Amino acid sequence: MTSLATSPATATRQAGQMNVRVFESRDLMGAAAAHDIAEALRQALAAKPHVRMVFAAAPSQSEVLAALASAPDLDWTRVTAFHMDEYIGLAPAAPERFAHWLDQHLFDRVPFHQVHRIVPEPDPAAAAARYAALLAEAPIDIICLGIGVNGHIAFNDPPVADFADPLDVKIVVLDDDCRQQQVDDDCFPRFEDVPEQAITLTVPRLMRAEKLFCVVPGSLKRDAVRAALYDPISTRCPASILRQHPDCTLYLDTESNPDA
C-alpha cells in the first residue's frame, strides 16, 4: 500500500513558474505537502547551520502541520520560526490569536531553536517594525502558506495588497470577505467578533523567501485558486503573484481544484 507521504498526485501542471499538484483527498494533500516541506528542510539543514521558516495559521493548514510535526529526522533545534500575521485588538489570552493556534498545532509540538510571535500590544506600529527587523536579520528559507477566499496571501487582501510594498510588515484593515472567512472557518462565532485590523507580512516579504509551499484545500477556495492560476497577475487576486516565484508549489485537493 502506498503511504500518505508518498501517494502520487492525481494531476500536476505548471502555472507560470509555480508547480501545481492535485490530490484525491485533503489528508493526502496535507501529507504530501508535509513530506516535501520536510525534505526541503532536511536539505537546508544539510547546507547551513540554521534555517528560518514562516508559518500560516489557519484551519486549512491543520493536516500539513500535523504531518510535519511528526516527520522523522528533522533537527528542529536549528530552526527559527515566525508566523505571517496576527489580529489587532484581541485579548492576549484569546484563543483566536494566530500565535496561540500555531502554539497548539506546531510551535509547542517540536523543539524549535526560537519562535518569534507577533505581539501587537501595546503599540501595533512598533510591533510591526520590530517584527520586520527580526525577519531582516537573515534570509527566510521556507514559507508555508495558504490562500484566502478573496485570494489573499497572509492578510494582504485585494484592497491593501501591494506587489511593490516598501514595507516588510504593516498594519492592514481586513476586508469583509476576509472577516467572513474567519466565521466560516469556525474561528469566530460572529462576523462582529472578527477584528477589523491586523499586522501582516507584506507580499514582497513573502516573495523573497527561498521556497514557498502553498496548501489550499476545500471547495470554498476553488474560485480563489482559479483566479490565482488563470486570471491576470494583479492585486485583484493577490495570490496570482505566486506564479512569478521561482520555487513555489501549490497543493490542492479535488474540492479546491478548479479544473476538476
Automatic annotation (TrEMBL):
Provenance organism: Devosia equisanguinis
UniProt-listed SUPFAM superfamilies: NagB/RpiA/CoA transferase-like (SSF100950)
Listed Pfam families: Glucosamine_iso
Enzyme Commission code(s) on record: 3.5.99.6
Gene3D superfamilies: 3.40.50.1360
Domain Glucosamine/galactosamine-6-phosphate isomerase: 26-244
Keyword terms of this UniProt record: Hydrolase
A molecular-function term among this protein's GO annotations: identical protein binding
Example GO biological process: carbohydrate metabolic process
Protein name from the UniProt record: Glucosamine-6-phosphate deaminase
A GO cellular-component term linked to this record: cytoplasm
